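A note from the maintainers: we've had questions about how concatenated examples are separated. There is no special marker in the raw files; a new sequence line simply starts the next protein. For clarity in this README we add a label.
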Amino acid sequence: MKIPGVGNKSVLVTGCSSGIGRATAELLRSKGWIVFPTARKAADLDALKRVGFDAIKLDVTSSESIAVAVDWVMAKNGGELGAVVNNAGFGMPGAIEDLTRDAMRHQFEVNLFGLQELTNKLIPVFRKQGYGRIVNISSVVGRLSLPFMGVYSASKFALEAISDALRVELSPNRISVSLVEPGPIQTRFSTNCAGQGEEKLDTEGSRFGGAYKQYFAKRRDGGMSEDRFRLPPEAVAEKILHALESPRPKVRYCVTLPAYLGSFAARFVPAAVIDRLMIEYVKKRFG
């Protein structure tokens, strides 16, 4: 199936176990897209298959897994693909001084290196067929760095930079690159983020140990200040749909109010003012 300006109406969507990825897969299928969703865990793949998806296992930290997934999708879809939605990712919390090299590297392996390796496997397909859409799920903290989420912010800043360069590099080939910056969304991100911190941070040896415990509890129990701005994952899926189907997709899509405010602040508010606001934010959140 084809639509004007998009070509083959098929898409690979990563990170579809729940949240944004699952909502995107379901919305796109309802709009007539052939959707190939991915997940890492067998239980999540089984859940996707039970509702009729052609789901494929994908671990973006593994080059072998990426190659197998791409080959499988190409075989399934006659060697063509209309788009990729790079949604898989996670957030590693913690003060910069508390993060090990391995923890920082893993954050970039998932949120940047694996994402781009997968995309690079698909670019020749897009170029050969003369069209393609690439949608990268970034974050408001890819425009405005957040204390105690600094390495996660760094991975999203890097994703924004790569996407901007790639968009220009691919412009002669009718291949568009869009970024989606959701902000707070009603997903398992906060809970998973707390779990990552508890598992990998040395909370007892850190000067922020007591603050971490309070912070992780809030992330789990819905005590974050931004919770009142959260939107359902379907709100992000709608933006992704526009990026895939519009004749003129936007470069960036903000979703929630904090995302719009963060984008504005990054462009127009002096760094000294942002620093003062962030210091107040840290005092309120961590003491």
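[label: protein 2]
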Amino acid sequence: MSSLNLRRRSVISQGNNMKIHGVRIMNFPRARGITVILVLAFMGIFALLLGTVTSYVLEQGKYGRALYAREQALHVAESGLEYYRWFLAHNPGILTSGTGLVSPDTYAVDDPEGGELGSATITATANMQCGEVQWIDLTSRGVSNANTGFPRTLLARYIRPSVGEYSYLLNSNVWAGADRNIFGPYHSNKGIHMDGTNNSNVTSGVSTWTCNSAAGCSPSQSKPGIFGNGSGSSLWSYPVAPVSFAGMAADFPNLKAKAETYGLMLATTSVQLVGVQQGSAFDPVGNNERKGFHLVFNSDGTVAVYRVNNTSGAQSIHSDDLTRWQNDYHTITDETLVGTYTAPSGCSVIYSEAKTWIEGTVSGKIIVVAADDGDFSPDIILNGNINYAATDGTTGLTAIAEHSVLIPLVVPDEMSIRGIYVAQTGYFGRNLYDCTYSPYDVRTSLTQNGTIVSNLSTGTQWLYGWCGEISGFLTRTDSYDRLLAFSPSPFTPTATSTYRLVLWREE
């Protein structure tokens, strides 16, 4: 009986415990509470994650709307610049004397389909010299109606680009030798024989031309607009639209009138500052190759004016006439100090009616003009190194000669010149002086920073068939002054008659 009871399948209940088939199963009343806690914990975590994701999405939406408003504000500011350019183009008096300039001016930018997008507030400042506008600086602050809290401000200059954008600007055939290092745009309306090194565009206004011995071809032969052994041929381009030399001609009568009234006037028998004669009159120095004025610029902003009484001569060959030797009277042997003056900052024009020598350290932005009302066309002689007191764009020199801009026989062995030099009807260069004038016939180097504008063929190195066989500078480095390309000295000739916005940048 007992054995049967041992084999019997039974379920015995003992309180809250139950034994099934000999296996004890425990029943825990706290299990349900733990489950609730876990569910709540997971719900809290989920809520936290959902809140974080929702916050991120909302912030991203807010950020996107802010980006949209910022981008739209930029376009609104640019629309303000374009509107004011239109306004200036339709009010030419502003570009002459500043009359009618409206500043600040508010321009509402409309979308034909979406209504007003925002508004631009334009502030215009005219740069004046001698009562004439040189350029106008514009500041346009754009605000989008989508969100006014994200304005954008653009700055630009409205100007006719000057010749200062070029390293060389020529109106004749030219040969750049292998020793030439040219930094900046180089252009000729005629043919170019390029054996030098260039790091910027070289452009010619012709598709073909006849290269002769003066340009390095013997016998004469037809050549493409630009040819040679220069290493920068990938930057050569021809033909391109020529630059009008007639259009960039300096208005000599106007500049003379400015100097007589507001600037420094070097008349043939006297010196006048702001219309007032300085000292007594002297014997005429105009209409004479052996006389003129010598200007020595000082770093303090003054200029010493000397009256040149006499010079010595030297035999040379000129690049505009290779058939004969001529006497150059460029070496000063006798001069008298007239006075030391400061060119007025409001009209920094020095006008000379005689041959003019210049050298020294320039401070501020100044233009020097050498021109004559009669048949005599004076030259400008670069008598020595010409440097700037500052190279941050606040200093600049433009020198315009009615005829030529020349480097004389007696100059530093390593010569350096800064400035924009314009030979209106003649040429820029150094004439051929043979070994009779050794050691001055050969100079080591010429470093030019700025712009050369020459109507006729240039030349600062000569090869000839006797004596030392070379005359001029052994090495020549040319570069344009990028700081003054769009901020030149007053009345610097322009390369085009069309105004445009330059120096575009965001504040």
